[in-house]
Design brief:
The complex is a heterodimer of chains A (about 325) and B (about 325). By secondary structure, chain A is α/β, with parallel strands linked by helices. Chain A has one domain: 3-Layer(aba) Sandwich (Rossmann fold). Chain A contains 12 helices and 7 strands. The longest helix of chain A is centred in the first third of the chain and has 24 residues. With about 325 residues, chain B is of the alpha/beta class. Classes of the chains: A alpha/beta (about 325), B alpha/beta (about 325). Bound molecules: thiamine diphosphate.
Chain lengths: ~325, ~325
């Protein structure tokens, strides 16, 4: 395995920045809409975790596969999903990527290798392993990636898939976003040991990275993708990060007590992966004016996606009875 | 046409379809050595890439079938005994049955989950279920149950070519059954029932291993001058409602023989259809001949006590024929 190339090569920081900011602004806007009560269903925002999706997906093309979880908007956008098609889906519109039949937890775009967000915690893991099997049979160097949470890490399918992927040397990345909570339970109260260490007994590399540092994520993912593309099998990456918003946006309406301290949230907000990247980009010679221009572009793109989606029509009722069978 | 055992017919179907389409792959536990004989020789013939032994990991297997199908292969996932579908049920019920719908048809999932099902072998409650009722209720999965070697071959070939997930359930007790099997291209379209024996006085709808009991029962009834028509649905979802109801309308009487437990059995669905859509033609209340709502017991005598056979079929038919509305 040749990892030195990855260690010395540098990502296109502005491209990463753009993608992370797009996700952040899209999610913030969605949070605002929840407040206004206009959203039909539950949404799980990934604000604070953008670096993981973006750092990993920067290595992928449309020919590679990802599977994701209920907190899947960031993965969808990082893999190249269209903002408008995603928002329209979340609003249950006919122009949504799944024509309003999936919703926030099921945004999927097979044309871009997005097997979909998933409402079943751990549900994407088997799917991604199957796509990795296909990729291996195709022999074209494709890889498959699954994103799951620290909560998802406790599903039995993780060990089943680590085992099969190791035995068969599947081109698979298991990317665990450890954001500190399994729903409302602090990770330490429901999760034994280190998640990355769960790879070791299977002979699979398990690495822990700072999930708020997109460059670290990018490096680790680069090595894992290279390994996978070269036929050397799977890698488990545990990215340590934090979710700023609620588990689900409406949680305050049904939770009777707090499950974390404001100080903790404030501390992690101080480790904002986007601010961190901004500083790195500025150090690298990009000017503030250039960054401002990118911000304005993204704000525009987000505005357009929402305006269009909200004006789009709902799907025809008849469509509820279609597509059960091919 | 050559006489073959049902399990050989399945093997032939798998072989021919893998030959015909290089994108057909197969995996499952011990499929190389093949417990039942249905996957025997496939690894030697098609190689260890396309035919793989998996670890015992039903959750992963059923999910990987979905992912591999989504990524372009036609997947045959062998689940061994049908009870193990429960172990791998998440991806079957939550992913395979729903992704086509949830993505508004973006993705097709050509998957065959195959398994051996049913009682009568003293295998105990955890190896003897016929789980098709709950599969029929999913809506996004076709459910196929053959009763003869020829049907087994033709239905499996159709299932592999189908763009939907299909669960193909082979009645365990019928694996050794001999029958004429057409060579080569013999495809039985899914969703088509077959009249296994024409008759005029009563319709017996029988599923899988129950078809033989129904046919033997019909022989006995013939001696009593009762002419029974035996209809084998072959595909339980989607059901061939037209063929079943046309028969019921002709005979005016219906008995359904089903190895499932009574509550929400396939028989329940078929009787409900007759009540809703052929009520005016029914000369007597329809009857379900099913397994009581109990697990399948181990001792041969107990197992025999719970399972339908030709005698329970005959008794039910006599009652239905004797009854007046
Ligand atoms: C099989 C299953 N069990 C439980 C749930 C309910 N649920 C949804 S999200 C969630 C927590 C998941 O935590 P984690 O995997 O860490 O992801 P995070 O929400 O932190 O991103 C739970 C319990 C579910 N959707 N699916």
């Amino acid at each position: 395995m040749n990892t030195t190339a990855d260690k010395t090569s540098r990502p296109d920081l502005l491209a990463l920045y753009r993608r992370m900011l797009l996700i952040r602004r899209m999610e913030e806007r969605l949070g605002d809409v929840v407040q206004s009560g206009e959203l039909p269903g539950p949404v799980h925002l990934c604000i604070g975790q953008e670096a993981v999706a973006v750092g990993v997906c920067a290595h992928l093309t449309d020919a590679d596969w990802i599977a994701s979880n209920h907190r899947g908007h960031g993965h969808f956008l990082a893999k190249g999903g269209t903002p408008h098609a995603m928002v329209a889906e979340i609003f249950g519109r006919d122009t949504g990527i799944c024509r309003g039949k999936g919703g926030s937890m099921h945004v999927a775009d097979f044309g871009r290798g997005i097997l979909g967000a998933n409402g079943i915690v751990g549900g994407g893991i088997g799917l991604a392993a199957g796509a990795a099997l296909s990729a291996q049979l195709d022999g074209k160097g494709r890889v498959s990636v699954v994103f799951f949470g620290d909560g998802g890490a406790n599903q039995g399918v993780v060990s089943e898939v680590l085992n099969i992927a190791a035995i068969w040397k599947l081109p698979l990345l298991l990317v665990c976003e450890n954001n500190g909570f399994s729903e409302f339970s602090p990770t330490s109260t429901v999760t034994a040991g280190e998640i990355a260490a769960r790879a070791q007994p299977f002979g699979v590399p398990g690495v822990t990275v700072d999930g708020n540092d997109v460059i670290s994520v990018w490096r680790a993912a680069g090595e894992a993708v290279t390994r996978a593309r070269n036929g050397h099998g799977p890698t488990l990456i545990e990215a340590r990060t934090y979710r700023w918003r609620g588990h689900v946006e409406t949680e305050r309406s049904f939770l009777s007590e707090k499950y974390r301290e404001d100080d903790e949230i404030a501390e992690w907000r101080g480790r904002d992966p986007i601010v961190r990247l901004e500083m790195q980009v500025l150090e690298g010679g990009t000017t503030q004016a250039e960054l401002d221009a990118i911000r304005a572009e993204i704000a525009d793109e987000v505005e357009r996606a929402y305006a269009e989606a909200m004006a789009d029509p709902p799907p025809p009722d008849q469509s509820a009875f279609q597509h059960m069978l091919a | 046409m050559a006489k073959k055992r049902l399990i050989q017919a399945i093997n032939e179907a798998l072989c021919e379809e893998m030959e015909r389409d290089p994108r057909v792959i197969l995996f499952g536990e011990d499929v190389k050595i093949s417990l039942f004989g249905d996957t025997k020789g496939l690894a030697e013939r098609f190689g260890e890439q396309r035919v793989r032994n998996t670890p015992i990991a039903e959750t992963a297997m059923s999910g990987m079938a979905v992912g591999a199908a989504a990524a372009g292969y036609r997947v045959v996932c062998h689940m061994m005994f049908a009870n193990f579908l429960y172990t791998g049920f998440d991806a079957i019920a939550n992913q395979a049955a729903k992704l086509h719908y949830m993505t508004a048809g973006q993705i097709k999932l050509p998957i065959v989950y195959m398994a051996v099902m049913g009682a009568g072998r003293s295998a105990g409650a955890q190896h003897s279920d016929v789980p098709y009722p709950m599969l029929m209720n999913l809506g996004g999965i076709k459910v196929v149950v053959p009763s003869t070697p020829a049907d087994a071959k033709g239905l499996l070939k159709a299932a592999i070519r189908d763009d939907n997930p299909v669960v193909f359930l082979q009645p365990a007790r019928r694996g050794g059954e001999q029958g004429e099997v057409p060579e080569g291209e013999h495809v039985v379209p899914l969703g088509m029932a077959d009249i296994k024996r024409p008759g005029t006085d009563v319709t017996i709808v029988a599923i899988g291993a129950m078809v033989r009991h129904a046919l033997r029962g019909a022989d006995i009834l013939q001696q009593e001058n009762i002419s029974a028509e035996v209809v084998d649905p072959r595909t339980l979802f989607p059901l061939d409602v037209a063929t079943i109801l046309a028969s019921v309308r002709r005979t005016g009487r219906l008995v359904v023989v089903d190895e499932a437990r009574t509550t929400c059995s396939a028989a329940s669905e078929i009787v409900a259809l007759a009540a809703e859509q052929a009520f005016d033609r029914l000369a007597a209340p329809p009857r379900r001949v099913t397994v009581a709502d109990v697990a399948i017991p181990y001792a041969p005598s107990l197992e025999k006590a719970v399972l339908p056979d030709e005698h329970t079929v005959v008794r039910a038919v006599r009652e239905v024929v004797g009854a007046r509305r």
